[in-house]
Structures are given as C-alpha cells and as structure tokens.
Amino acid sequence: MARHVAGPEIEALIRFLAKLPGLGPRSARRVALHLIKKKEQLLVPLANAINQAVEKVQVCKTCGNIDSASPCTICTDPRRDPSLLVVVEDVSDLWALERASVVNAAYHVLGGTLSPLDGVGPDDLNIAGLLARTAKGEVKEIILAVNATVEGQTTAHYIMDQLQEQAKDLSRSNPVFEAIKISQLAHGVPIGGELDYLDEGTLQQAIASRTRVE
Amino acid sequence: MARHVAGPEIEALIRFLAKLPGLGPRSARRVALHLIKKKEQLLVPLANAINQAVEKVQVCKTCGNIDSASPCTICTDPRRDPSLLVVVEDVSDLWALERASVVNAAYHVLGGTLSPLDGVGPDDLNIAGLLARTAKGEVKEIILAVNATVEGQTTAHYIMDQLQEQAKDLSRSNPVFEAIKISQLAHGVPIGGELDYLDEGTLQQAIASRTRVE
User: Could you give the CA distance from residue A25 to residue A33 in angstroms, rounded to a whole number?
Assistant: First the structure.
C-alpha cells in the first residue's frame, strides 16, 4: 500500500473525484492537482458553483427536468406549445433535444426505461405522472423520443398501451374526448453517417421508410 | 445557439467542470447530471471535500509539495532521511514516487522545467530554494528525478552546474565542506516493456548501461 503523502483533505478530494463518470484514480489525481494549482481561477469558482447547485437544484414536479425552480423554466415558458409533449428517458436526452432546438414543446422525463432484469418496473418510472398530465386534456400530441434500444422501445410500447387504455376510459365518461396523437422519432441513416458503418437494422429501416424525392 | 434549459446554477457547474483536464463540454454535462442525480451520495460530499481543500491546502514553503500543512507531512516526517533529496519537476512526480514507495527521502519540487520557448527561466522554477537547502550542509546526496525529456534533461544539467558552482564557493570558505553526490534515474527498458515498441534512444541507453548478471 502506498504511503499517504497528501493531506487528508487532498485524499478526500481525489476519492470523490474518482467517483465521477469518466474519471479513474489516475485522472482524479490529475484533476485534483490541476484544481489545487489553479486555486483562485478554478477551485474556488468550482466550489461556489457546486455549493450553489447543492442549494438550488431540484427536480421539477411536473416534468422531471432538473432546474433551480419547480415547475422548471421549460414548464413555465409561455412561448412553448403545451399541447405537444415530448417524452424522454432522461434529462440528458431533454438537454440534447434542446441543444438542437428542434421542438418547441413541453417535456416529460421518465427517469429511465423498463428493465425487468434490473428490477425497473413501471412504478419506478414517472409514467403515472405522464398519465396524470394527459388526463387533463391539454395535451394533443405525444412524441415518444426514447432511445432506439430494446429497453427504449419496450418502454414506448408500454406507454402507448397505457395511453390507449386511458383514452378508452376517458372517451367513455366524456363523449367529446379526442384521442391523443402518438408518434415516435424517425429511424434511418444519421446525417453524416456512412452506410458502410451502419448496422443492418438501421439500413433496413432506412429502406423501409424511404422518402420520395421526386 | 442552443437555448438555456437548465438553471444558471447548473450552467455554471457545467462551465467549470468543462475546464478540468480530460473533460470537455459533453463529459462535463454528463458529470454534472450524475452529480445532481446523486446529490446526497456524491454532490454534497464533493462540495465538502472541495470546500475543505480551498480552506486547508497550501504549498509547502520548504519543498514545494502540496499539503494541508507547511512544512508538509514529508518535510516533518522524522523517519525520512534528510540527507537524501529527490528533485522532481512536479507534485505529481512526487506522488508517483511515493506511491511506488521506492525512496525514503526528502523532496524538492521545481514546479516545472526550463523552457525558453515558453518563457520559463531559472527564476520561474524553485531552484533558488534548492540551493538554499543545499547550502545548509545537511543534504549529502541529490537524485535528479526529472522526466527523460529534453526539457527535463536541460533542467537537470542547469541544476548540476549550479550545484557545482555552489560547491566551489562553499569549499573556498569552508575547507571541510564535502561535495554533494548527484545522481540521475537510470534509463532503460521499463519493466513489462516490449523491445519492439521502444524507441531507439531507450534501446541505445539500455545497451550502453547494460548490467552484468553473471
């Protein structure tokens, strides 16, 4: 076992940095040294940023987004179309869609995908919250923007079943109830993608969903 | 430009995380999300560790090591041989040698290497501090454990010249002064290294410094 050369404060810093995704013991030491050397420019501002995050950041009770307010900035944004709801697995997916600025809608973060092997069932995801939102009648269209993985697609199917179930119940009690349109992201060749590197499933989808150009 | 979806606290956290070595904007977002999701297990302890580091960590005035005390734990360790001084470029090199537990000596951290192109001269390194320590007469041997790079070797040569200069001065005023032994790390094939992957310089050194086994 190596001797402890750095003080307990540095050892603790390295230990917690090593737990971050993408960092191991070696890179954590490098990051710690870098932070300590740039104390005023980096360590102190980072400390402030983290303290602020500890204090302010919370999960939006409406959509599951992470923000410093609940309901979050997106849920309270009056310029967004509240009748269009984009369902995503994770906050990182929400951020990705927002970075691309492709849709001006409200979101709903599931917090994962159904995964029976890992013990993740419907109650572990924010599906009840989604059904509570759709029951209010404001939402007219849902885009299931889940990942194109087996788990993502399974979750999408489960949610579709639940929404159709709910639509049946609602139309029974309310004759003018209009069923919500449900769509999924298109599958195909990614922009800049080379066919040679794509898997068969993607190519198959790209052929099957081909679009006429003339 | 992407819209700001996360609160200003999260944006600030991502911005500072992206400045850490080895992290870019994408991995900084991933780390920030991970931290926020594991608020109690990770974000809060990391905040405490960083706050402690901000408060306690300092540079040892004797050797240039980073620790929560000055003089540092190594400089004040009575079990270490104060007559043997290992000169390293950086604190990370000191940590590497200590992890390997190969030498029970005092250290001296230069804080870099001579690099005229980058404007790093002798006055920018902790060479004056080294000469002040050797002038006291306690140090009997110095290991110049600098990197095997051009800059490292240049720095080693400069320090050797300075030490010989100092030895001349000291022996003039003090006839019983004993010159300090100076050594460098051995060059050769690293343990586990394959000859096929080594550069010519290393192989040349390994042949020139070959050791008899029988």
Answer: 12
Instruction: Tell me how many degrees the CA angle A82-A88-A92 measures, rounded to the nearest 5.
Output: 110
The answer to whether residues A62 and A75 touch, using CB atoms and an 8 Å cutoff, is: yes
Q: Of chain B residues 98-127, which have a CB less than 8 A from chain A?
A: 98-101
Measured distance CA(A153)–CA(A160) in Å, rounded:
10
Q: What is the pLDDT of residues A110-119, one digit of tens each?
A: 999 999 889 9
Residues of B in contact with A36 (CB under 8 A): 53, 57, 66
pTM above 0.80, yes or no: no
Residue A140 φ then ψ, to 5°: -105, -25
Distance in angstroms (rounded) separating the CA atoms of residues B91 and B97: 10
The fold of A66-212 is Dna Topoisomerase Vi A Subunit; Chain: A, domain 2 (3.40.1360)
* The CATH number fitting domain B8-56, selected from 1.10.3720.10, 1.20.1640.10, 3.90.190.10, 1.10.8.420: 1.10.8.420
**Contacts with A, B 74-103, CB within 8 Å:** 74, 90-92, 94-95, 98-101
Q: Which residues of B touch A92 (CB under 8 A)?
A: 29-30, 33
- The domain spans of chain A are 8-56, 66-212
Q: Which two tokens stand for residue A133?
A: 């939102």
ipTM score over 0.85, yes or no: no
CB contact under 8 A, A100 and B2: yes
pLDDT per position as a tens digit, B22-70: 898 899 999 999 999 898 999 999 999 999 999 999 999 999 999 988 8
Q: How many angstroms separate the CA of residue A48 from the nearest CA in chain B?
A: 9
**Structure tokens of B200?**
């010519």
From A164, A156, A150, select the one nearest A89 (Cα to Cα).
Answer: A156
B58-59 and B66-67 strand pairing = antiparallel
List strands edge to edge, sheet with A181-184.
Answer: A105-109, A81-88, A141-144, A181-184
List CB contacts of A114: < 8 A, sequence separation 6 or more: A120, A121, A122, A125, A151, A154, A155, A158
Using a CB-CB cut-off of 8 Å, the residues of chain B touching A43 are 50, 53-54
